[in-house]
Write a structure and sequence with these properties.
It is a single chain. This protein has about 290 residues and is of the alpha/beta class. The chain has eleven helices and 13 strands. Strands 5-4-1-6-11-8-12 form a seven-stranded mixed beta sheet. The N and C termini lie far apart (about 45 Å). The relative contact order is 0.17.
Length: about 290
């Protein structure tokens, strides 16, 4: 097993029940988040890690729509493959579904409705990863919605509790995880929780018991947004709109990310631009390449 991080899994499944009726005919991760499909944001995050091998997991009903949207990834200089989650039975199920893709290697797992934006050297985090697991903690106002990190007296992680009614800290575990290949065996040993799901919190606690769980705290100036409710989608869209309008950038423009990471050359990007309709997204790419 090589050090570093070459592979990434996007879990874009689930029933989207909290977003009904918006999700009656389309899955949540294909909904627009401001000016891009929601799935662009986690895909861009994986690409910023330097990851070029991606497995996208979704439901039987919608997996084909992701394939139509993203293809095999070759236009971005990456390789995207697809797998089906027959029933939504927990985040940790994605690790089992991805066993053949993981093939014993280190990998990142990211949820398809999570947005990460701010000063974090993702490629350095990925390159320095060797073994065990890394989670990313973020202070939130409503920790009872998430897996919550409980700390000991000296600041070490004591345990992670899934959606506690009385949280002992305000540090939530975000929907981004780095694992070594041993996560597959751990996930296979899990028993469903009271919610009937294979909990990713149980995977993280298993690494914690072996003293192999590392925490990266996402501090001030960093934004983590999840899009599980209508309110959080609106908040995320407003945040993205504000940043893009004030700074003249586009968050999670996957073609720009591919170019800046060196996955594709400038000529490749210019060819992609010519295939786009005449709109703001195309104009942005024309501007950053000096062709507008």
């Amino acid at each position: 097993m090589a050090d570093g991080m070459r592979k990434g899994i996007i879990l874009a499944g689930g029933s989207g029940s909290r977003l009904y009726p918006a999700t009656a005919a389309i899955c949540k991760q294909l909904l627009p988040l401001y000016d891009k499909p929601m799935v662009y944001y986690p895909l861009s995050t994986l690409m910023q890690f330097g990851i070029r091998e991606v497995l996208l997991i979704s439901t039987p009903e919608f997996i084909g729509r992701f394939e139509r949207l993203l293809g095999n990834g070759s236009r971005l200089g990456i390789n995207i493959s697809y797998a089906v989650q027959e029933r939504p039975e927990g985040i940790a199920q994605a690790i089992i579904i991805g066993e053949d893709f993981i093939a014993g290697d280190n990998f990142a797992l990211i949820l398809g409705d999570n947005v990460f934006y701010g000063p974090l050297d993702l490629e350095r985090e990925a390159a320095s990863f060797t073994r065990g697991a890394t989670i990313f903690g973020y202070r939130v106002r409503n920790p009872q919605r998430y897996g919550v990190i409980e700390f000991g007296e000296s600041g070490e992680i004591e345990r992670i509790v899934e959606k506690p009614s009385a949280p002992k800290s305000d540090y939530a575990v975000t929907g981004l995880y780095l694992y070594d290949g041993g996560a597959v065996a751990i996930a296979k040993e899990l028993k469903p929780s009271a919610r009937g799901e294979l909990e990713i919190t149980d995977v993280n606690n298993a690494y914690l018991r072996e003293k192999q769980l590392n925490l990266v705290r996402l501090g001030q100036g960093f934004a983590w947004l999840d899009s599980g409710t209508f309110e959080s989608i609106l908040e995320a869209a407003n945040f993205i709109a504000t940043i893009e309008k004030r700074q003249g950038v586009k968050i999670a423009c996957i073609e720009e990310t591919a170019w800046k990471k060196g996955f594709i050359g400038k000529d490749d990007l210019l060819k992609l631009i010519t295939e786009m309709p005449d709109n703001d997204y195309r104009h942005y790419l024309e501007r950053i390449t000096g062709h507008r």
